[in-house]
Amino acid sequence: MSPNNHKQHLYPTRIDMPAETRSQIVGLLNATLATTLDLKTQVKQAHWNVKGMDFYQLHLLFDEMATELEDYVDTVAERVTALGGLAVGTARTAAADSILPEFPFDILDGKEYVTALADRYAPYAKHLRVAIDKTGELGDADTADLYTEISRTIDKRLWFLEAHLQAAATTTASATPEKVAL
Ligand SMILES: [Fe+2]
């Protein structure tokens, strides 16, 4: 049986939210759980394998980001169970249900790793922002707040990642004679 069949499973609960609403939110949270687990393993992949002169600072940064995602995995899973749902968060379900592509294995230096992670943090950030609106529309301010907290952190991490790439772009642009004249 596919683990997807369990994604909207609901246990009886005294929580004052309609089962239909809880079912929709549990489905959304389980998609977030799969994606967050997947992203955490991809950030660890980067933590272990990044090379180059920026190795150590990126190695530490990626570990900090992975630890943060691990906390969110637990927060999201426990919101599922608080709503009476079944948290679906094994490695197999994460691989099957994540919205992200697999991490590239043929990259080497820091810039390539930072780019690969930015390319995955951006769709994850978009997923979280959509989830804030959906859970708000469903009247679940608590889950919307949980998504808002994660979203704010992920936007900040996307900034951290892109700051490495934007610096190179700015240097190149300002080095042209036209830019200097301005
Ligand atoms: Fe480590």
Automatic annotation (TrEMBL):
InterPro entries: DPS_DNA-bd (IPR002177), DPS_DNA-bd_CS (IPR023188), Ferritin-like (IPR012347), Ferritin-like_SF (IPR009078), Ferritin_DPS_dom (IPR008331). It comes from the Bacteria. CDD domains: DPS. It holds the Pfam family Ferritin. Residues 28-167 form the Ferritin/DPS domain. Belongs to the Dps family. NCBIfam families: PRK09448.1. This is DNA starvation/stationary phase protection protein Dps. It comes from Microcoleus anatoxicus PTRS2.
